[in-house]
Fold these 2 entries.
Entry 1:
Amino acid sequence: MKLSFIGFGNMAGAMAQGLIEFDCLPAQNIYASAAHFDKLEKKADTLGIHACQTNLEAAAAGDVVILAVKPYMMETVTQGIRSALVNKTVVCIAAGFTDRKLRPLLPDDCESLCVMPNTPIRVGQGILVWETGSTLSADMEAKLAELFGPIALIVPVDSEHMDIAGAIAGCSPAFAAMFIEA
Ligand SMILES: NC(=O)c1ccc[n+]([C@@H]2O[C@H](COP(=O)([O-])OP(=O)(O)OC[C@H]3O[C@@H](n4cnc5c(N)ncnc54)[C@H](OP(=O)(O)O)[C@@H]3O)[C@@H](O)[C@H]2O)c1
């Protein structure tokens, strides 16, 4: 499986690092794009993944495309890569997104899933809040669960509760860090 990250900031970097360090996916199967290529290239070199010059190049490279830009950028970014998403699997990690909000941004001929990860995925201790009732095929659902299972506890959640589950999973590590620091 080839995996592409569109946007390679804190969360995407943590996911890639976890996947590589826990031997879930070889680094050479991972592609990424971001706003600033120089910064991306340094990060990519450290991990051994491919840095792509454009979002389109990254989207074209992956079988599974992970949308990892800030929520407010999702519409613009998906517009630019829409053609490359046909027949792909798209995974959106943006806060506040459910399938209902994501689907209008994607071509009809692609399957998609909304999840909310958290940064402990980097050390194999993540939570992956996983929206149920997505358009994923059973086969791809099993493949993604196998991919992320070793580094995150997968928690299926219905669309209605995605926001609250995502907020708890996403913010808890920061609160725990504050308690530890205190
Ligand atoms: N951080 C968390 O704990 C967490 C948890 C769950 C979900 N999420 C979700 O993950 C997503 C990313 O969050 P983050 O914390 O990783 O943010 P971040 O560190 O600010 O990363 C954002 C990334 O998007 C890139 N970017 C900006 N404009 C772009 C464009 N036009 N095309 C391609 N890439 C672009 C940035 O590139 P440059 O670095 O070059 O500017 C950066 O790599 C958000 O939707 C957030 O809701 C985050």
Note: Residues 6-12, 33-36, 39-40, 55, 68-71, 73, 77, 93-95, 116-119, 170 surround NAP (CB under 6 Å).
Entry 2:
Amino acid sequence: MQITDMLLTNRNARPGTRITPRGLVIHWTANEGKGANAVANRNYFNKPTTEASAHYIVDDKQIVRCLPETEMGYHVGAKSYKPEALKLLSSYPNNCTIGIEMCVNSDGDFKSMYQRTVELAADILKRYGWGVDRLWRHFDITGKNCPAYFVSDEFARRFTCLTAAQAWGKFKADVQNLLTPNPQPTPKPVDKVSIEINGVHLKADGYLKDGVSMLPVRAVSEALGVEPVYDAATKQVTVNCHDLTESIESGVSYAPARELAEALGLQVEWDGTTKTVKLSKGCVCN
Ligand SMILES: [Zn+2]
């Protein structure tokens, strides 16, 4: 992961106070103006009159480091804090958190910025040996509408088909995915179901549950270029915004073949002789 060091020199934004981080806070810059990218936001933090900062700023092109992780920034200061933050962080959460700002400049690509933020967050969590329970929205600490697309449904829907709570759940799940790669499905051999997509055999298998073929959601969706969304809070899996009746086996989500096929716009056929679920796009012409 490439990080550009542009450490702040403004003492009003970088007091030099040593900290021992206990959590990672996600923000957005709230500036959709053209050119409001990572460097521009860093330069704003560095103006002598600015009394705000964050450790990292991420845009669709790069990650800019403004502060060492062992120094305090001013990103979650407030008159009062939520009880959970006071309990798990401190009475002044700036003194024990690392802050990441996500850029939303209209001339940037949200998806690239998002992916880079997921990678940076996962890298930080890994280095400190933390789980995704150490991820905070600015909102969770002070109640501020930040990052708005993880707090307000109206903003979330500008960027995804999800509610804000689902988008935040997905962010945490995406980070989690980088912390622990998905284990391969291990269905009982007797129940095994093979999968074919447009005539091509899929590596992953499904299994039979009470006569219903259950297919691995991620493996099938990704074979079609669709990313399933996992909400860590509700443990719900959606594909193309279709909620699935999933079942988790060895950490892998499975859904009934017909439901998953419908969510992906596929036809489904069952070959009882070879115990194969055949999924295909478009019309079955014979
Ligand atoms: Zn914020």
Note: The pocket of zinc ion is lined by residues 27, 138, 144, 146 (CB under 6 Å).
